[in-house]
Amino acid sequence: MMRDRRRQPQDRGIVEIGRHASHLGGKGAGCEPVNPPPAGEVAVRRTDGGVLAGNEPPSLEYPSTSYAGPPPPPGEDFHPCRFRLPRLSGVTMRTDQSWRWAVPTVIAVAIALWLGWVGYIASDDGLYYFGAVKWVDNPPYAGVDHWTTRFPVVLSFAAAIAIFGKGLAAFHAMSLGWFAALLVTVGLTAKRIGGATAGWIAVMLTGTMPVLATFASIVNCDMAELVFVLGGIALLPVGRDDMRKGFAAGISFGLAFLSRETAILPLVGLLPIFLCGKPVGRRALIAAGFGFLAVQGAEALFQWIVTGDPLHRYGLAINHDDKMDRAANAEGNFLLHPAIDPLLVLLINDDFALLFWLLIPATIARPWRHLRGRAQSRLLILGAMAVAAFFVVGALVHELVLNPRYFVLAAVTAAIVVALWLVRLRPMMRAAVLVALVGANFAALSLANRHPHWSAEILVETAQAHSAQAVFTDKTTYDRALLPLRFAGVRNVQVGAPTAGSLYVCGPCDDAPGDAITPIAPPPTAIGTLFGVIGLDGKLPGGVRRRLMAPGDAAEVRTIR
């Protein structure tokens, strides 16, 4: 007589599925290692009592890494360490295939780097280089300005110079090294929250994000700051009051603050968590505070020993900039009213493309509902800190420029939430959304001017091509080309009134000496190059054509008679 299975007591024990673990054994369950599992079988372990233990974490195609359901029907083969998937009707489980995302992710990030590559821009990167060289040539160096006192950035740059020498190779190693560290940190953070596939998607979205892909080729402090902030969040003991981990998290937050002072802004998001006492215990957060202060205390002690002023760095930082005005905020941003301008920076800005627009349906879908408790808590902490930083930057509109770089924590958080949403979509829909997101990032990168200081580049090329002839230029152009000229070993460039028989490089060249010649336009943008290849550049409207085909000021090489 057949038994009614619906009336049988159901064992709701949770079973986690993962790739083959070479030493999957039971504690008191009499299980034997599955090495390798027979064809059609998958190594499993229970999590409802710690009966089984393995040496690698479980993983599935989707964020949820557990299955709570009944055991196989009576009479079917079932082993406490493995079971046959074909015989478990009504349940579809797969081994981890997330590694297949590695190739498209690497390709997408490589394309983004190629499209957005700028390199040395003679701005903050030159100041970081100055501080790093001081540490290489004559350590210790206390710093003389806002940039050379950002020690995690300067010291890592000094390490790159010590390895690759004083040249552009050290610049590239520095910028790409921190960019790679950021992608690894984002990937591990997303994987810890939503699984390996979510991790790969988050890396793809972060690595192709225009604001980050462009600065991956420029020495900056953003990457280091974000790496340490995410590292601190990862170290916070969720669900426990572990003071040692809290202290370690505080050290990471302290290093983020040393990398750039804006790292203090997301820490405001920890205040409501401290008041609630969860998901991180109050003692752990107090320990984090002591870890943060330990880093600042060590830096103050260093400054006291070297300069006699323990607050040397803070004095430089406070006097760094004057009050910001609305004109400064308007550079590259679409603004309407101070109350909504920070939101407009996220939604209408080529630095983020479609990311924050796709965050809207992702938030409506609430993909965090399918996460386990600790994963939800980690996403909550990340979201709280990102939201806090967003609102504080908006409130400090007269102290901070509405620079998209100040919103990168919010952007990375958005990328992780969108990744959690995408892994739950059907494959075709997921692919379509990813193509739209990454394609929009590529399009935004393709519009960028990759030669912001074109006249300085022409100066270096001209000086190298006419090494036996004196080349003159204006002071601004000379300062921007100073390091590339030094790296190239060129010594025939001077600033001042040109002499007869010399060359003069300028751009723009209003009232410049010498005979005017045909200007040398900067290379077209990537999209402009595409239009030129297919022969449609001549059909573009005048303003659009200039923006795509000649995105910056032209340069001239004039002969002085």
From TrEMBL:
One of its GO terms (cellular component) is plasma membrane. GO terms for molecular function: pentosyltransferase activity. PANTHER family: MANNOSYLTRANSFERASE YKCB-RELATED, MEMBRANE PROTEIN. Residues 1-73 are annotated as: Disordered. The chain crosses the membrane at residues 101-122, 171-190, 196-216, 251-277, 284-306, 343-365, 377-398, 404-423. GO terms for biological process: lipopolysaccharide biosynthetic process. Residues 159-294 form the Glycosyltransferase RgtA/B/C/D-like domain. Residues 1-19 have a biased composition (Basic and acidic residues). It comes from Sphingomonas crocodyli. Keywords: Cell membrane, Glycosyltransferase, Membrane, Transferase, Transmembrane, Transmembrane helix. InterPro entries: LipidA_mod_glycosyltrf_83, RgtA/B/C-like. It is found in: Cell membrane. Its main location: membrane. This is Glycosyltransferase RgtA/B/C/D-like domain-containing protein. It is a multi-pass membrane protein.
